[in-house]
Amino acid sequence: MRKFVIRRLIHLIPLLIGVSLISFFVMHLAPGDPTQLFTDPNVKPEELARIRANWGLDKPIIMQYLFWLKNAVRGDFGIAYMINRPVTEVIFGRLPATLLLMISSMLLTLLITIPLGVLSAIKKNTWFDNFITVFSFIGMSIPSFWLALMLMLMFSVNLGWFPAVGMYNPLLKNPDFVQRFFDVAWHMVLPLLTMTLVSLAGLTRYQRAAMLEILNQDFIRTARAKGLSERVVLFKHALRNALIPIITILGLSLPDLFGGAFIIETIFAWPGMGRLGVMAIFSRNYPLIMGIVVLSAVLIVLGNLLADIGYALVDPRIRYAKK
Amino acid sequence: MVIILLLSGCSAEKEPAQRRPIVLPKLSQADPEGRLILPLGGEPSILNPILSSDSASSAVEGTIFSGMVRINEKLEVVPDLAKKWDVSADGLVWTFHLRKNVKWHDGHPFTAEDVKFTFDAILNPKVNSVRRGDYIIDGTPIRFEAVDKYTLRAILPKPFAPFLVQSGMSVIPKHILEGKDINTAEFNRKPIGTGPFRFKEWMSGDHVTVVRNDNYYLGKPHLAEVVFKTIPDANSRLVALKTGEVDESDIPPKDYESIWKVPGLNIFEYDALVYTYFGFNLKNPLFTDVKVRRALAHATDKNQLISLVLKGLGRIAHCPMSPVSWAYSEGVAKYDYDLKEAKRLLKEAGWEPGDNGILVKEGMKFEFTVLVNQGNKEREKAAIILQQQWEKIGVKMNIRVMEWSAMLKIVDSPKDPKDFDAVIIGWSLGVDPDARSIWHSDQYPRGLNFIGYDNPEVDRLLELGRTTMQKSKRKEIYADMNRIISYDQPYIFLWYPRSVVAVRDRVGGLLTEPGPTGPFLYIEDIFVTK
Q: What is the C-alpha separation between B105 and B196, in angstroms, rounded?
């Protein structure tokens, strides 16, 4: 197992170099450059050329890449344009808000979808199952931006229960930790609700399908034939196996946890990574884009690795052999 | 649940709402601990006035920093850190007499050395300030000297009228930034200024808070704090205004009718220093003939554009200067909506209707593509409406919606001729009427005269306008220039938009008749009630 993990981690190195090389060139292929956003009638073209040169953008792209790579290897991802702060500092400034929202939403989703999916598989074709199915399809067809605005109108404007925007109440005077915690939790209710409602539907369907497939397997029949109680059959034998596809999906969605959700962050003015990433791309903030790309690449690989380890933990058929 | 959501989502709003006058609270009702919350459309990038170029940063900087002069609601230059100034007879030496007893927020005294330091920093090529070009005239930088502690002298290589407005650049502290790399200094996130408010905190992506500067030289501000909350989505800003999470919001045309029905708000309307235009690529053989450009202007129903795109919140434009500016004058060429005249002009220019109604001249079809930037709904709508309006005279216009950076890449490319036929875009204008960078022939192909306009008389007037000091003479010069440009019609000037902002009625001290700088111009006078 340990060997397997180490081997996978070593694979990460050429992979990251490849990803960064391709992204760097593709990024520069996109038309436009970062100084164009300064365009206003009073800014002279010579000044833009000077700033481009200060940023090293006048050098050949391959030189720019090697320079970037040399620094990146040492953990220096450069200074983000315009913001003029180290890329890592900018990213880590936004990461906590994103992690908080995304992890809470994922946990909440799992807490709801696993029982719902399992129940509707067990009670297949009953009114309960049909209700969940219809509910899931409605959930899948509702666009998140619309749901977000409707929740806002209902709970913020009409009922006044929750704040509509932001993560903090700026009027709190020197809040202590507990006050801050409740403040953030309060602000998180609507974005969290939106994200969960939107992702609920899909995962419930996956969980139901996985469970149904397992329940039709021979070993379940064997287990029942052995006279095991229905509880043991369902929760020990069936559920453990039915979690495998969910683990795959969770592993693949790890980068989303860090990437944030642009639309929801924008509507609820949540200070997360999604907004940062889109802003970086639209403003051609090359160092910032590269920082985010490398982070996402690392996370995708790690996510897959974690999923593989997760299989070994839940699936008795999968073991990473010692050679 | 879904059904409840559906119901709360739609409420019929058809009949126009009652307009009501602005009623502001009285200063006696002011809360000395009052805190004002203003929304920002984007996250400020950096809080250093010589480096930032986004409006969110400028909004925050406006409360923390101040400059030698400032702009009032009529766009006139008035004293700020400088009590008065004089200009030598030849227009080359400007002397600013600064206020005494002004202190930085950290208590350090403010002197002329700070002002000199600020301008020298902007002129330093290593500092990534886009403002550097403002202080270089024909290749020679302006020289700044601190004559004594409270006198600053600027020596210009040649007379340059726009310098007065530019001398109002916010001043940054020498005692903190001297010897540091200004681009990446810690200061840029924890700024120290001389303005009415001191920096307090910046929560990344969420808000920036500033607190009252009790030692402000124009008197203690009324508000205890101003909070700038980043809310990128326009609909969310409106929701936040309704829930009271912010005190102000811009109102897009689509929400203009319904906002009047929301109680507890004062609604301000004012002209923005902006115009939107349809720009011809003058190097394109379709558009070289001025008759064709005038014909298209005649075929443009600007009233329809304003009523459909802006819901009436705009004025028709005829020339490249905003009616808000002191340099604006009537008496420019106006091309009223007149399809007959348009057809006559096109015929005169040799265009005849061909098959399926599209005009033809010497085998060439009158068909071209206009570029508009993605995400700007107003310009996208305008393009569609123009497409239909011009179809009536046999002109076929295709529309290409592009991402902003990608579009600028085409428009700004140093090629001659450039790879576009026409573009719908806008200019936001400076306070000074000088527009050399937009119209001078030496600003093509490199520069902002990307349509390739070339008129020697306009070039001459542009030079004359910026080297003439007397305001009344400048006004005449710009009147001539605008007349010539409108006659040449290198752009079809479409509209000047009206800005609308709604402010909660607990906010007082606002300008009831704001200029383009908006009702919050004098932030030190603003208060909120208890």
A: 9
